[in-house]
Amino acid sequence: MEAVAKTKYLKGSPRKTRLVIDMIRGENVSRALAILKFTDKRAAGPIAQCLSSAIANATYKAEQQNIAIDPDDLWVKTCFVDMGPTKGRKRMRPAPQGRAYREQRHYCHITIHVTSEDQPKTEKELRAEAAKARKAAAPKAEKKKAEKPAKKKAEKAKAEEVETTPIEAPVEAAPVEAVEAEAVVEASAPETAAEPVQEASEETGKE
Question: What is the pLDDT of residue 107?
Answer without folding.
Answer: 94
